[in-house]
Amino acid sequence: MEAVVKKFPEKPDEAGRPSRAEAEAAVETLLRWIGENPGREGLKETPKRVVKAYEELFAGYGHGPGEVLGRVFEEVAGYNDIVLVKDIAFHTHCEHHMVPVIGKAHVAYLPDGRVLGLSKIARLVDMFGRRLQTQEAMTAQIADALNDTLKPRGVAVILEAEHLCMSMRGIRSHGSSTFTGTYRGSFADDVAEQDRVLRLVGLGG
Ligand SMILES: Nc1nc2c(ncn2[C@@H]2O[C@H](COP(=O)(O)OP(=O)(O)OP(=O)(O)O)[C@@H](O)[C@H]2O)c(=O)[nH]1
Ligand SMILES: [Zn+2]
After folding, report:
1. What CATH architecture is 17-57?
2. Counting ligands in written order, which one lies closest to the CA of residue 170?
3. What EC number(s) are associated with this protein in UniProt (predicted)?
4. Residue 106 backbone phi and psi in degrees, to 5
């Protein structure tokens, strides 16, 4: 049987979700596990703060691409060439270690009579960043969301990021960055179009 691949994680299952008090207790357990005293002055409020920070850092589960991308515009005077938003700063957390990943996204599409508000592309990147991710999955999710919502002729998504789980721990390799890129539609069919995007974002020869 073919595996069912969920493109976008579902919203949290509210019924099975631990309470805020349980989440705070879990942070307190981790504090004790690293050798700290959760009762000392500076840490008294830390479980509450961490849970509040997680609400913000992982807010992406509460939203879907449809609501983030909003409406499309059709009055573009027949413009049907590339639209590229580059150097969108993002941060996410790797799903293996829950440690930050910091990088830049470059997102391009070839309209088919419809365009999006430019800020919505950055909002989409931000939304997927506020979930646990692998860089590959996040790249594919951005491309699929744009493709499904806007139905453009082509989509290109390139992410460059530093994984702090590789620099702060483990191999402790500093300064390396990981590059992922995916192409849909006419970008997938035409290597010259891919080269154009790479040149425009400063990664091409
Ligand atoms: N493909 C991919 N791998 C990632 C990403 N983020 C982290 N990783 C890797 O996930 C792997 C997890 O490997 P494991 O051997 O299961 O875990 P580990 O013992 O903590 O691995 P080390 O980081 O090598 O110490 C590591 O090689 C990480 O570098 C990502 O976005 N994409
Ligand atoms: Zn990691």
Report:
1. Orthogonal Bundle (1.10)
2. 1
3. 3.5.4.16
4. -125, 125
